[in-house]
Amino acid sequence: MFKKSLLLFAVLATGLSALAAETAAPKAAETKPTEKELVIYSARKEELIKPLLDQFTQKTGIPVKMLSDDAPKLLARIESEGAASPADVLITVDVANLSIAKDKGLFAKLNSKTLNKNVPALYRDKDSEWFGLSKRVRAVFYNKEKVKPEELSTYEDLADAKWKGNILARSSAHPYNQSLFAHIIKVHGDKYASDWAKGFVTNLARPPQGGDSDQLRAVAAGEAKLAISNSYYYGKMLTSELPEDKLVAQKVGIFFPNQKSAKGQLNGVHVNISGGAVLKTSKNAKNAQKLLEFLSSAEAQDLYASLNKEFPVLTTAKSDSVLASWGPFKEDKTLLHSWAPHSKQATLISDQVGWK
Amino acid sequence: MLRGAALLFAALCIAPLLVIATAWLIAVSPETAEAWQHVVKYLLTSYIIDTLLLGFGVAFTAVVVGVSTAWVSSRFSFFGQSILQFAMILPLAVPAYVSAYSYGWLFEYAGPLQTLLRDFTGWEKGDYYFPQFRNLGGAIIVIGFSTVPYVYLLARTAFLTQPLEWWQAASSMGSYPRHFFWRVALPAARPFVFAGGLLALMEALADIGTVSIMGVQSFGAGIYRSWFYLGEPLVAARLAAVLLIFVFLLMSVEAFNRRKQRYSAIIQNNEIKKIPLTFGKSIFAFLLCLLPVLVGFVIPILVLLRLLSYNKVFSMALLDGEYVWQTLRLGGLSGLLVAVVALVMALAERFYPKGWLRYFTALANVGYAIPGAILAVGLMLLFGWTQKYFSADSFMTATIAALLIAYVVRFVATAYQPLRSGFTRIPQEYDQASAALGKNKLVTFFRVQLPLLWLPLSVAFLVVFLDTVKELSATLILRPFDVKNLAIVAFEFASDDRHVEASPYALILIALSTVAVIILFKLYDKLKVYR
Amino acid sequence: MSVRLTNVTYNYPAANRGVKDVSFILESGKIACLLGPSGAGKSTLLKIIAGFVTPDRGDVFIHEQKVATSEKIIIPIQKREIGIVFQQHALFPHMTVADNILYGCRRKKAERTDFLNQLLQEFKIEIHKNKFPHEISGGEAQRVAVARAIASEPRVLLMDEPFSSLDQSLRSQVEQQCLAIIRERNLTALIVTHDEASAKNMGDLIIRIDQGSE
What we know:
In chain A, 47% of the residues lie in helices and 14% in strands. Chain A is an alpha/beta fold. In chain A, strands 1, 2, 3, 4, 5, 6, 7, 8 and 9 form a 9-stranded mixed β-sheet that branches. By secondary structure, chain B is mainly α. Chain B has helices at 2-21, 30-42, 44-75, 81-87, 96-107, 112-121, 136-161, 164-172, 177-206, 209-214, 219-229, 233-259, 279-310, 321-351, 357-364, 372-390, 401-424, 428-436, 441-470, 473-478, 486-494, 499-527; strands at residues 76-77, 275-276. Chain C is of the alpha/beta class. Chain C has helices at residues 42-50, 97-102, 109-122, 138-151, 168-184, 196-202; strands at residues 3-11, 18-26, 31-35, 57-62, 65-69, 72-73, 82-85, 156-160, 188-193, 205-208. Classes of the chains: A alpha/beta, B mainly alpha, C alpha/beta. Chains in contact: A-B, B-C. The interface between A and B is large, with 73 and 73 residues.
């Protein structure tokens, strides 16, 4: 028995050290990235961004490594890593995240003709710290059997009592809703926004739950007439290999609100971006900038559209057939960084009116 | 030396909690003060109510189901019992967030059950009533049934090791099993049941995944929301500190409870004669024990299999051993490390039972009730500060070290419990005999205690392994590059609404955990016959 | 003089129990029985001599060396060279009889086998050499426990109701056998018992303690 326990201990010890060595070995290489290896912290999931990065590596020969998590946690990580942070580039969804990170002074100022040319001024930071890479439209989706598109008009209208018990949305805490609401606050002010949210919450068919796709599925099944969701979830369902997804997409129609809005309302559909920035602490800033430039280039922008069904920021990008089938639409031109700071207020008001 | 090491480990576990607790001492900006006022005014009440309901609801579910099934399967023989008594702990292999999603999908309006119902009857919305699952009740069911095995295992051990003579004496006095259960067996097993219930409760408090799926406004959800959506770490930390105090109070009650309990060396009940049940009662017992297996294991897996079957385009991802290897490696490493840390602390308590050290080790166990994400960010802040002092070149999160530290803080309690009870089963006389025979503590440990501890040690390892394999939020935040285990892959798909793609990874994860759970059960059975 | 206690007092914290002002002298090579009703503090006294418990007041001497004094251990238990036999044997369950006996043996490797065999023979437990404690009977376990204590060649042997768990006939047999071996080795022994007859039978002298004092 004594031998047994010695053996156990030996196994423990060797196991520990072997495993530790096994994990430490590649890590040692990581702490000092080779000259060219680019480190990306991404709030976009690997599945979405990987094909783009692969193409970048193929084209430039610059190897890329990425770590994905939610944006607020990545920001916390970057902050605590401080000057030692290995990260070169931050890629994230939602302008609010970019704007918070900018306020924290995490980004480097870029002076890139390519980026300035490819990314319209509306979708990049006024101080050239972050750049939008794709547009994400928050649209209204309706059950084709129950709603005619003519009945739909604006975001503002969604708070109207006629939709009582017939709208679906995910949690107010989610950045997509937070941003739309922040946008409404910016355009209309706190008082109106609060009333709007109250009306909107009473119109909800069920307590907020699930993601955007879940709202679409529920609308298709008839749980409610309308849902708000980002358009690419719908686009991906339309082109999905799963018959179940296709069925859902066929039952649901897309509507771009606020195309003919009254004065004082949002003047066009709410557009958010996914974007990127080079970190101030990057030791590989040149290549980092190269990556952003690549992501704004025609070939990458085409992929955003064809793979992810997002709208390219590059106006000359090739149009994806699915996206084109939805027709042209008007975007609200309120500057993104003008409403981004209202995100916090959006959360506070949501709490007050009980939008979970 | 021993005390020094134990103190060091305990301090390591307490430090991030202290960082959180200091939130109340730091002067806050007007903006943060306003946010705090906001939370107090609009949210705190529902946080408190939901947390209490969730915590006690989960503990209640786990205790009622766990104790009744443990009693039935340890004292009676009935149809299917030999399989069920171990199948009962399979829910340990299913992460609560997976089961939460599965049930949410199963019961929702667009889900398969209601769709089937509508297709069959032609009803539409409003024509029929169907219970909602994504609410507090759903969360209680999901977390409650996922924690039933904790209570079941502890209660079962207690029942099986109660001296046969009690039973015989009670029967001779005309007591029926039912009376015996209420008047002797259950009161005597109370400390074990209490410990199991507490574990379930802490699990509920630390949860973020399930409550967010179910839309429950617990403290865990509130902390997460304040930090990551409101951007107010100090508000989050204040909430976390309140939660910590609550947990600490609960643990003090448990400690008080345990003090009244007298451990004696467990006596082996060779072959307890189990009472055969009549046919009717046998069916009832069978169904009772089947319930937690169905709810906590079978149904979530069936749902995943259903999702998997949607996947017409099987990628080769299933065959990619890399994620499996990463999962095993991380789980194994964390299991070993945490078991060793817990062993040092338990050993120190064994040799110095009356010292001040025990307060530290008790405090070090609180980490189990802190949501992984909160703990991880607390640790990160701590690393950030220490780094400024030492101006290190590389960063903790560049290696796996940061992640392992988080696991130690989070899971040391789960490893500590089996080890401590393992120690209580080694009579003090053994230590005294060894000392009288001229051996110092080191020799006594290696030659007498360790050989008698290898079962509890293996249990500690496996429990931590299971926890680590299922852990998600701390792993996401603190992992270095390249660390991508099954839980993370599944999560990345799921968070992008791609549940079909996530399902194979979740299933492999459950399969792996199931193997670990089965080994765990075998060990448990050996553990109780020691002496 | 092998064991000497002067005015030893000890109270259990939060319990109205302990020993009060106990003094006695046990000469080398003698066997003493500590006799008294249960709860009188006999075991406590043994624990004080062994070094598991520190006296509140009084001194403890072993071979004229002060090993403990008021609230202070001077010589720790490992260095006192005492052998202890517990009431419940406390044999290590994961070791064979042979390993148990040799656990505290201080002899050189070469001598060990002979030494072990001799002890096994004396206690008539040769056939149990490779068995584990749970495979032998209570009487055999008791003999193994005594053999283990003797194998470390202690200066003083302390026994806490060593034979109380055995039935009457077996008990006197084991008692006689062990006593003979102890006497043969001229060991100093202190045996705790509550049985007057067996105390008279075994002890060269009898130390009575009653409600905590001598």
